[in-house]
Amino acid sequence: MTTERVSEILSWYGSDNPGTLTNLARLLTHGALAGTGRLVILPVDQGFEHGPGRSFAMNPPAYDPRYHFELAIEAGCNAYAAPLGFLEAGAREFAGRVPLILKLSNHDVLLEERDPAQALTGSVGDAVRLGCVGIGFTIYPGSEHRLTMYGQLRALAEEAKAHGLAVVVWSYPRGSGLSKEGETAIDVTAYAGHIAAQLGAHVIKVKLPSAHVEQAAAKKVYEKEGVPLGTLAERVRHVVQAAFDGRRIVIFSGGAADTDETVFEQVRAIRDGGGFGSIIGRNSFQRRKPDALRFLKTVMDIYAGAKK
pTM for the complete prediction? Predict the structure, then answer.
């Protein structure tokens, strides 16, 4: 159902055509959080990004692409995001049961790189053919290849919007321009979200920011202006503010598998800081399905206000 909150969010995307707005509405009005303006998306690109053994051996049913469709549907996720092969393996069988996002770019870990890039592994045409609501694309601010990725994203975003699709951007700082700590620094994370918004993203995925400030120039401004960054909720608020003062949907990654209570505390901080939700992969599909369903229900209940 389209609620006042959903209508408000759609109004932020005034240049988009009815097809794109309809697909954004499908994303926002599906699942357990339908109509709330909050999102919980299941992403399963880790098999490509980290290797199948590292991703699925702890829960062998997850080797089957259909398992992830079923998990997203049974949990009431807003959408399911994956690379081409995984979506092709279940798009017909599960057609119309969960909104799909096709990840158009991917990266493997078979070569150690200081400055990673992404391979194009799908197309806008594939997304249309599979009935997706949108495309996904990763950029690496901080990599020496970042400008090429920015150009690729801009072109793909233009094509996707022309076909009525939403654009979801994984904006993950890394590369020789940053320290390891700087990859999740608050100034860098906010900058990464802003870059994604400037390149035409409707939905922006970033990692949760730490209190570290990487750039000396940013640190000087933060200290002079007294920007509150002491708590995770305050840092989430700043990242959302950097994405057009909260007029772009910003969601936060779940990261590596962690304890339930740690994840729930992070979800509370995202909620309290004005974030729009979570995109949780490994913390969901690397556990047995009954446990995963209980876990995701708690996350959604926190966002819905049904659980503190």
Answer: 0.97
What residues contact residue 225 under an 8 Å CB cut-off, 6+ apart?
Answer: none
Q: How far apart are CA 68 and CA 62, in angstroms?
A: 7
Contacts 24+ apart (CB under 8 A), 50-56: 50/109, 51/108, 51/109, 55/282, 55/286, 56/285, 56/286
Give residue-wise pLDDT tens across range 253-279.
Answer: 987 767 899 999 999 999 999 999 999
Task: Please give the DSSP secondary-structure letter assigned to residue 216.
Answer: H
What's 254's DSSP letter?
A: -
> d(Cα 297, Cα 269) in Å, to the nearest integer?
17
Rg of the Cα atoms in the chain: 18
168 CB-near residues (< 8 Å, 6+ apart): 81, 101, 134, 135, 136, 137, 201, 202, 203, 204, 205
Report which of 295, 256, 307 is spatially closest to residue 40, judged by C-alpha positions: 295
pLDDT average, residue stretch 35-64: 97
The two three-digit tokens of residue 184, written as one number: 């999740």
Residue written as tokens 């081409």? 84
**Number of independent structural domains in the chain:** 1
**Residues in CB range of 69: below 8 A, 6 or more apart:** 80, 90, 93, 94, 97, 98
Cβ 13 vs Cβ 21: under 8 Å: yes
d(CA 118, CA 137): 9
Q: Which listed residue (103, 205, 207, 307) is catalytic? A: 205
Amino acid at 152: Q
Please report the pLDDT score of residue 308 as a whole number: 82
Query: Which residue in the block uniquely carries the two structure tokens 């994370």?
Result: 189
Secondary structure class of 126 (helix, strand, coil): helix
pLDDT tens digit sequence for 125-163: 999 999 999 999 999 999 999 999 999 999 999 999 999
289 is an active site residue: no
Q: What is the CATH number of the domain that holds 157?
A: 3.20.20.70
Amino acid at 6: V
Residue 125 is part of which domain span?
A: 4-304
